[in-house]
What we know:
The chain is α/β, with parallel strands linked by helices. The chain has 20 helices and eleven strands. Helix 8 packs across helix 11, helix 11 crosses helix 12 and helix 12 packs antiparallel against helix 19 (about 435-445).
Amino acid sequence: MTSSSDNPATPQAEIGVVGMAVMGSNLARNFASKGHTVALYNRSPQRTRDVIEQYGSEGNFIASETIEDFVASLKRPRRAVIMVQAGAATDAVIGQLAEQMEEGDIIIDGGNALYTDTIRREREMSARGLNFVGAGISGGEEGALNGPSIMPGGPAETWDALGPLLEDISAKVDGEPCVTHIGPDGAGHFVKMVHNGIEYADMQVISEAYHLLRYAIGLEPEAIADVFAEWNRGELNSYLIEITAEVLRQVDRRTGKPFIDIIMDSAGQKGTGRWTVKEALDLGVPVTGIGEAVFARALSSAVAQRQAVHDNTLPAGQLATCETLGVDPQGFIEDVRRALYASKLVAYAQGFDEINAGSQEHNWGINPGDLARIWRGGCIIRAKFLGRITQAYENNPSLPSLLVDPHFKSELENLMDSWRRVVAVATQLGLPVPVFASSLSYYDSLRAKRLPAALIQGQRDFFGAHTYRRIDMEGTFHTSWSGDREEISY
C-alpha cells in the first residue's frame, strides 16, 4: 500500500475508485482481493485515510488526496469507477476526471444513474475522446465486497479493457461470471433501473404474502419465518425469500417483541422504481405489478393521511372471516405460496417486456437471456427460477411474453386456482393485496380474447372524433355522432 505522498513516477494502479463510502470502499476492496492494485480517491481525504487504516492490509492500494494524483497513479488506458451520489455530484467528478484524462481512457459510473443522464454523459465524453461506461451494480454492500451482478453499457470496445476486471470481481454461478456487456450508451443503467423495478414488485408481493399469513390466519412472525424458510427450499428459492425469514425471526432486544412489530410501516424509496414506471408509461408497456409496488410504498409513506382516514373509520362493508369462508390454514398457506410464485413471474415478465421495448426504442440489441443469466448471482433479485428464464430465452429469443414459455405456461396452470382463491379471500377479508390482485388482472387481460378497450375507443370517437379501427376490414373510421351517424372511412 502506498499513499499520495509516495505515488510512484510509473503508474501502478490497474483501476481506481472515486468515492469511499461503503459501496465504493467495498468495491475497491473487492478489486484488491483479486490481486489488482487499486487507486483510491475521495473528496474528503480523511475518508480515504480511514479506508486505508481499516483495510489497507487487504491488498495493494494507492491512496491520493488530489484528483491529479489519483489519475496519475492509473495505468493506461486509465479506468476509474465513480461511486458517488447520483446527479450533480456525479457530473462534478466526471468533469474533474475528464480534465486529467487522455484519449481512450475510461470513466465508469457505478451508481444508480438515470439512463438518460448516462446517454448524455457518454455523448459528452465521446466528444472529448474519452470512453464513458454506465454500469449498474447490484448486490448492495455485501455484493460490492464479495461479488455483485454487474450490468455495464457504453462503447463495445471498452469491454476488452474493462471486462476482465469486472469478471474478476463479479459473483459466479456455475463458474460463470455475473457480468456481461449490455449494450451501447445508457443500456446498462436502463437494465439496472428495470432490475430495481422488479425488485420493488418482488419485495411488495412477498410482504403481501406475509401480511396474509399474519392477519388472515393469525400466524406469529416466528411461525411465518419457518414458512418462508421452507418455501426457500423449493421453486421460490431466492435471496429475498431467504432474508425475509431472517427478518421475521428477529426479536427486538429492547422490547422482546418481534422485530417486525416495532418497525414503522412506512417504506422508503430512492427513485429507481418510479423511474421504471415512468419509462414504462413512455414506452407504452404495462408494468402493473411494479407500478402497484411503487404506489404501495407511496401510500405507506402517507402517514398523516392514513391516520386521518383511520380516525374517521371508513366503512369496510360486511367483511368475512376465515371461519365463515371455511379457509383451511394449511391449505391457505400453500395457496399463498403458489400465488406468490405466480405474481413474481408476472413481475419478471413485465420487467423483461420493458427491457425489450427500451432496447428496440434505442437500438441497444439487449439479449434478455444474458440478463437472466447474470442476475442468478450477486444481485438482490437473484432467484432459482432465473435459470429457467435464461433457458426460456435461449429456446426462443423472440418470446412475445415470458409467460407463454412452455415451462412457465405449465407452471401457471398449476398455480391459477390458488392465485384466484388468495385474491378472493383477501378481498373478502378486507386485506390489501395490490400486487397479487393487479398481477392476476394483468394476466387475465393478457389472455382475454376481448378487452373493454373497444368501448373506450367508441367513447373517444364520440367526444373527440379520435377514430377507431374495425375487426372486419382495414382502415380507420369515424362515426358522425352529432349528425346522421354515418360511418366515415379515412
